[in-house]
Specification:
There is one protein chain. By secondary structure, this protein is mainly beta. The protein has one domain: TonB-dependent receptor, beta-barrel domain (Maltoporin, Chain A, Beta Barrel), CATH 2.40.170.20. Helix content is 7%, strand content 56%. It contains 7 helices and 43 strands. The protein has a 24-stranded antiparallel beta sheet that branches. The protein has a 5-stranded mixed beta sheet with strand order 1-6-7-4-5. It has a two-stranded antiparallel ribbon with strand order 2-3. It is globular. The termini are far apart.
């Protein structure tokens, strides 16, 4: 333990020495207080870290109801998907082939990834883009951040900054699949030059592209600020309530061909197997509330500090109809057995009844506390930030049967399983950039991360899960930047990251942490009308937990340790001003993603398949935004996305291959300014999948061994499922600013 802390302690101790040595050199730049908040997790334009910055203005014309991952679809190396097919409800994002649970997300420096599942559920914060000031997506390990390690990318969001003037706005949009979005915002501006209060209320509803994949989403954002020249104190309360009809089951290839919007969730049969309909309340019902207290203070032109307190509470359930006939004859599961729920068999008319149709709820009730503090010193040569982070998570998982055709002596509210998870995390870091001269700068970043995770009780499968594990990680990073001239710059960096398993891994008996060494080499070119970024990377993994392709019973992907694996890639993105009216923003990511000497069970025997493709990792991902701005008030854009073929498993089976797809969206916005009754009125429209392509962005792949058809012989049977995305659809909206 001491060895982990030693590098951090040494660098922390060096801070006052460095300050004393450079006090004679005045800083040439006074940072804004918002920059103080971002110091711990963001990097600058010349840092040796591969990254993209996005401001709220860049997303405004497309912010018509779709979740944040869909708004980021055109960033380099990004692939997005939507369970409901149209971008409202449950959505996901992958970066460099890494799924959303491996993309570290922070809100004002506080982790948003769920501590146990490590996932990010944007459905719990609908319309959050309307309260966002900016974001930065760092690809690869990136710089040190809070929460679970970045194994593909890190995404940090800054909520809206203090507005000096009073304002209000109302935005409404409507689109395909009965999609509605209503947003109301206000700010008092600075009152008595010190105080500001602002807020937002939003409601989004949609029937979804997939059958019954409806969403009813509500959210709020409230902020109170005390603002002076050198101090900014903010109290934030934000959250959301979502009720979505389940659409995570996917469909097979035959159904995809004949009825691509079909949704099997909630299916009901009679005792003879005759189809009766679908259960109306097969929903995910969950609320999440966040409370943050942010203090930023600048002591002088050299020193600044930030402190954050956070409390997050989440509470909700999945409600599911368990059909007895379907469970027994199609799924071959024990989900309809009364004994599974601790209910004794009953006898009616001399017949013993052991199974039943029933409705169950699986609950999650969790609390997350976090504290974060960091101090920054900078002058013309040094920029040093050191900080501490602590968090505690406690989550209760339990299930109950709320109705059964044959309930025996059970009572409403009886719990058939109860489990708990407790997680503590402590992080210390120190990072420094030293500018040797106008050409050379050097970057160092040391992080120690200590994690304790304990599970107790039973899982939703009514199996015991009593584990306690501790993980100690040391994550060094280093880099160098060379500015050849005003236009050209090079950078080279190395980063190491570790990541602990999540709850579902524990359930599968996986307790080994993942390790990653990330090497990045990049070139940046800046001209008046051209910005070009190019980088190559090599991400070398040990014990990487790759997606197997299979899902659990709530649609979450299962993982397995792959041993040695790597991702090797080239990324290029640019912003090109063709003239005053036309511009291009192309990007392409080429990669080779491999498991090394991958071993799998095939036909009852372990087989070394050699170097296989890592699941859900397309070799090419490309995008482009072609923008035409004929006047200051009118903007038109064609947004294109190509995602190459990918395997949904790790065994290179042709059955598991997901076909490549190429889609285009069209976006237009027009603003009327200085109206008699308002500052501005903006009309926006978004046509998604302009050329009506039938495509699938996500799916699953599974295998099982059949030793029944041919006794004495084991045959591996393969199966797949698909999540089709919406064909041609639209959203239109209007926003009124006062």
């Amino acid at each position: 333990m001491k060895s982990l802390h030693l590098p951090i302690v040494l660098l922390l101790a060096a801070l006052p020495v460095l300050a004393q040595e450079n006090t004679a050199v005045d800083s040439t730049k006074v940072e804004t207080l918002d920059e103080v908040l971002l110091k711990a997790v963001r990097v600058t334009a010349t840092s040796p870290i591969t990254h993209s910055n996005v401001g709220k203005e860049q997303l405004a014309s497309r912010n018509l109801g779709q979740d944040l991952p869909l708004l980021l679809n055109y960033l380099p190396g990004v692939v997005t998907t939507s369970d409901a097919g149209a971008g409202v409800g449950y959505t996901g994002i992958r970066v460099r082939g890494s799924d959303a649970s491996r993309v570290n997300v922070t809100l004002n420096g506080i982790p948003y990834n769920d501590a146990e599942s490590q996932g990010t559920f944007w459905v719990d914060l609908p319309d959050f883009a309307s309260s966002m000031e900016s974001l930065q997506l760092q690809r690869g390990v990136g710089t040190s951040t809070n929460g679970s390690g970045s194994f593909g990318a890190s995404l940090n969001l800054l909520t809206e900054v203090v507005s000096e003037t009073a304002n209000a706005s109302f935005a409404n949009s409507y689109g395909s699949f009965e999609t509605w979005k209503h947003t109301a915002k206000f700010s008092t501006g600075l009152l008595k030059d010190f105080f500001e209060f602002s807020g937002r209320l939003s409601k989004i509803t949609s029937e979804g592209y997939i059958d019954r994949a409806s969403s009813n989403l509500k959210s709020y954002f409230l902020q109170g600020s005390y603002h002076t020249k050198n101090t900014n104190l903010k109290a934030l309360a934000f959250g959301g309530k979502e009720i979505t009809y389940q659409s995570w089951y996917g469909i097979d290839a035959v159904t995809l061909e004949n009825d691509r919007t079909y949704n099997p969730a909630g299916i009901q049969f009679d005792a003879e197997g005759n189809f009766e309909g679908f259960y109306k309340n097969q929903v995910d019902d969950y609320a999440q509330n966040h409370f943050q207290l942010l203090l930023n203070h600048r002591f002088n032109n050299f020193w600044s500090a930030n402190a954050t307190l956070n409390y997050t509470h989440g509470h909700g359930y999945y409600e599911e109809y368990v059909d007895d006939w379907y469970s027994q004859n199609v799924l071959f599961s024990n989900d309809s057995y009364l004994s599974f729920y601790g209910i004794d068999p009953i006898t009616i008319g001399g017949e013993t009844i052991e199974t039943s149709d029933l409705v169950r709820r699986r609950w999650l009730n969790n609390n997350f506390y976090a504290a974060n503090v960091h101090v920054n010193y900078h002058n013309s040569a040094w920029d040093i930030t050191s900080g501490l982070f602590y968090s505690y998570y406690g989550g209760d998982h339990y299930g109950e049967v709320i109705w059964a055709r044959y309930a025996g002596t059970s009572e409403l509210g009886d719990r058939y399983y109860l489990g708990n998870g407790d997680k503590n995390e402590f992080t210390a870091f120190s990072k420094a950039t030293y500018r040797l001269n106008a050409s050379w700068s050097f970057f160092g970043d040391l992080q120690a991360r200590l994690v304790s995770y304990r599970t107790s009780g039973r899982t939703s499968k009514v199996t015991p899960l009593n584990e306690q594990r501790r993980y100690s990680f040391f994550n060094p990073k280093a880099g160098v930047s060379l500015q050849l001239n005003e236009a050209h710059g090079l950078y080279l960096s190395y980063g190491r990251a570790h990541r602990e398993p999540r709850r579902s891994d524990f359930e599968e008996g996986v307790f080994t942490a993942e390790k990653l060494n990330d090497y990045e080499l990049g070139w940046r070119w800046r001209r008046e009308h051209l910005q070009l970024n190019a980088n190559v990377y090599f991400m070398d993994y040990r014990d990487q937990l790759v997606l197997t392709g299979a899902l659990d019973d709530v649609g979450a992907p299962l993982r397995a340790t792959s041993g040695q694996s790597y991702r090797l890639g080239l990324e290029v993105d640019a912003q090109i001003g063709l003239n005053k009216q036309w511009s291009l923003q192309p990007n392409v990511a080429l990669s080779d993603n491999r498991n090394v000497d991958f071993i799998a069970s095939v036909d009852g025997a372990l087989v070394n398949l050699g170097n296989t493709h890592i699941s859900f990792s397309p070799a090419i991902v490309a995008g482009n935004i072609l923008e035409f701005k004929p006047s200051q008030n009118l903007k038109l854009a064609l947004l294109s996305k190509y995602v190459g073929e990918q395997y949904m498993g790790n065994v290179d089976s042709a059955v598991s291959k997901l076909e490549a797809y190429f889609t285009n969206d069209f976006n237009i916005s027009y603003t009327l300014q200085e109206l008699p009754f308002a500052k501005a009125l903006t009309f926006s429209a978004l046509v998604n999948n302009l050329f009506d392509v039938n495509y699938v962005s996500n799916g699953y792949y599974y295998t099982y061994d059949d030793d029944y058809t041919n006794p004495g012989m084991v045959t591996t049977i393969e199966g797949t499922g698909y999540y089709p995305q919406a064909t041609l659809n639209f959203l239109v909206g209007a926003s009124l600013q006062f």
